Amino acid sequence: MKPSLVIVGAGPRGTGLIERIAANAPELYAGSGLDIHLVDPHPPGAGRIWREAQSPLLWMNSHAEDVTMFTDETVVMDGPVRPGPTLHEWAAIDGRTFADRQLQGAYLGWVHEQAVAALPPDVAVHHHPCRALRVSGPREGRQQVWLEGRPRPLLADLVVLALGHLDAELDEEQRELASYAHAHDLVHLPPDFTADSDLSSLAAGEPVLVRGFGLAFVDLMVLLTEGRGGRYDGDTYLPSGREPVLYVGSRRGVPYHSKIGYDWTGERPPLPRFFGPAEVDALLARPDGFDFRRDVWPSIEKELGFAHYHRLFTVHPERTGIAWTDFEEKYAAGEAAEREALVASAVPDPADRLDLAALDRPLDGVRYASHEEFQDGLRAYVEGDLSRRHDPENSPDLAVFLGLLSVYGQLIRLGDVGPWWHGFFSYLASGPPGPRLRQMLALSRAGVVRFVGADMAVVAEDGVFRASSVTVPGETVEARALVEARLPEPTVGRALDPLLRELHADGAVETPEGLLRVDRSDGRILDRGGRPHPRRFALGPYTDVRTPGAFTRPRTGGPAFRQNDATARAALAFLRDLACRAAA
């Protein structure tokens, strides 16, 4: 019997793993024979999130030239580099295009086909278009992967979970809101992947409260406007009359920052500088552990500041007061207060100084007398963000983006650092395309989108939902519909996926934030004693070594690619040794 590997999840993460298996097999596994079983009800390559069967109105939030599924020399890994085309090269489109998700799904399907074709001839791939329900079997023996609707399990020498984004049970607040909505004939749409949500209950002309101002809201906005027949004439939105009125707010009260609209030129900041492997090693060596805000964030803040000021001083020296070499020496040696004083003396214009706290919470302490006044204020804020993010005179912003990618690559080694960092990263680095924010402004002027403010609070009372915000004290918005515009939290304990819940019950352990603990070196699932399971691996956003995404921007180190390579090599070495023992 040939060795068998089961990969649960055939989306971009599962495809990336197959690509790395193909790349590493000549060194680690050639000639032994292997069956790879892919288990996923959705198409291989695209998976659920990027499947081609979704609205063509939905875009990626990255330029086509910034999307690749292939490794390059910047990826630190033991396996070989196997270069390949970016999305824009493969599709022969302008690199600055924000491609729709259908096109990305086609690209991912092609990558999957190429990865399978690159496998050795005696490695076969079998796709099972169904769900995996549970994994059983002894630690030292073959595993059984039970599939929906099938009486017999797949037998596997190794199992890799590449599940992607997961559905989740409602938390206590969401259960209470859902129960209230059911009792009072209201509409409550809990956190979900927007393309899968049934939006038909959101009636034309009716107010809808929307909590969440990130990419899920952008998708919702598109589907309820253009998706219902509205259209744009330049900067003017022409309604179809079928749109609801969206009252949107969030913790920050502002949309994610626009994608940067210009290319990098010149020297890149030499990263990592203040938060690299040595700093991570020191944190991991601490006998009492570490606290993110106290022990990690100060180094991240210094790193991002270094990226910002390196760009400012080397490309825009006329806006600085001293030589870069002098600034760099003092910046490197100084503590936070000393660096703040240095920046104040060396960078005359406050707009050229990096203030991460102000970026994170731009409405803190800001108050408006009325909702109407706030609409004008937030439109001005979004217009200012668009202007800055599309002006290369503000290129230190792009340097900070590169700094964020560098930091994320280091943080993976620390495991679960809590939810704040991931939200902050997405808000600064993974926001919507500029054209989407321009559409948002047009919808605001047309009265289809209305802004609620920061720290949006929602209560269910008197037969309706009511929203309020500290940004506009004393004012409330009333509606019979509430949409939670965000993905479910990737927690093991509340995951609806039966396989993951069974693993948890069987001894897999979760972090305080609810993420699945895995070995940081190769992705093996850890038990409550900290032992890695010899035959079970996991990759993805529900683990405590989650990455920014399963694909990435070229030449930025690709943390997911590094993880895929490590897992592929560990799997191949295990299966090779298993085959050798069987032949002995």
From TrEMBL:
Domain of life of the organism encoding this protein: Bacteria
Domain FAD-dependent urate hydroxylase HpyO/Asp monooxygenase CreE-like FAD/NAD(P)-binding: 6-165
Region described as Disordered: 538-562
Pfam families reported for this sequence: NAD_binding_9
InterPro entries registered for this protein in UniProt: FAD/NAD-bd_sf, HpyO/CreE_NAD-binding, L-asp_N-monooxygenase_NS-form
Residues in the signal sequence: none
PANTHER family (alphabetical): BLR0577 PROTEIN
Protein's name in the database: Adenylate cyclase
Top-level taxonomy: Bacteria, Bacillati, Actinomycetota, Actinomycetes, Kitasatosporales
